[in-house]
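PROTEIN DESIGN WORKSHEET
SECTION A - STRUCTURE
LENGTH: 253
TOKENS:
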């Protein structure tokens, strides 16, 4: 059960942010409308939203998920792997200190993006990617295990971030795509499998009584409905142009 969410309005500098996609330049006005719809969807899920203003200094900082890993009892401030994003944590740390007394930190040379960390009840999965290195993953694993959680490190082969291709939706169910469909780390879960053409929709978020999914993926919606979930669909076109997904835009705790 989530009570709080942190989001951040994208600034105009977002248009100059990092991307590996070839989907074109985002439309800023459409992006703002999509972000507003995202916030309204979160509010519908029954959480209190802390809405931070845009920061033009950090073009990618609307992707707040990468700045921290949050549990009910403590926060871990990450150490983002992209040089242009690393100082985003300086803005996020004081915000999270309003909610948490216990804080941990990923220290250099370790790097860690929150998008590479998936929680499923008391288990965490930590991806090693272009943004999260082995040292950062090791540090987080040590912190989590010392606090009573289980943690498994998973080197990525295909996806940009771990949560690009996987989501935990509760009831021991994992939504999986690509390299995670047959990954042994997830054999204990009931799997909702996403096909190659719908891989983008694997990045979804369960927020209390709803699962928020990208708009335009009818097969994904059907599978979730058949599994008993109530969905909210959101247009993510301008977010996707900069490698972003639903999970990237918020910190949920």
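SECTION B - SEQUENCE
RESIDUE ASSIGNMENT:
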């Amino acid at each position: 059960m989530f009570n709080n969410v942190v989001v951040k309005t994208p600034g105009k500098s977002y248009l100059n942010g990092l991307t590996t996609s070839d989907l074109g330049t985002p439309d800023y006005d459409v992006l703002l409308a999509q972000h507003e719809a995202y916030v309204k969807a979160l509010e519908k899920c029954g959480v209190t939203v802390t809405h931070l203003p845009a920061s033009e200094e950090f073009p990618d900082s609307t992707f707040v998920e990468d700045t921290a890993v949050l549990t009910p009892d403590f926060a871990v401030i990450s150490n983002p792997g992209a040089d242009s994003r690393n100082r985003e944590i300086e803005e996020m740390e004081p915000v999270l200190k309003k909610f948490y007394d216990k804080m941990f930190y990923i220290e250099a040379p370790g790097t860690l993006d929150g998008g590479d960390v998936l929680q499923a009840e008391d288990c965490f999965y930590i991806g090693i990617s272009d943004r999260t290195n082995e040292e950062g993953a090791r540090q987080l694993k040590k912190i989590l295990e010392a606090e009573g959680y289980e943690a498994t490190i998973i080197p990525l082969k295909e996806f940009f971030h771990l949560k690009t291709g996987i989501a935990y939706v509760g009831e021991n169910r994992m939504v999986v795509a690509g390299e995670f469909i047959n990954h042994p780390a997830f054999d204990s879960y009931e799997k909702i499998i996403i096909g190659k053409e719908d891989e983008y929709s694997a990045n979804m978020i369960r927020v209390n009584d709803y699962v928020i999914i990208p708009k335009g993926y009818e097969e994904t919606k059907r599978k979730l409905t058949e599994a008993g979930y109530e969905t909210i669909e959101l247009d993510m076109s301008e977010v996707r142009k900069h490698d972003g997904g639903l999970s990237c835009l918020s910190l949920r705790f």
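SECTION C - NOTES
The chain has a mean pLDDT of 97.
The first strand starts at residue 4 and ends at 8.
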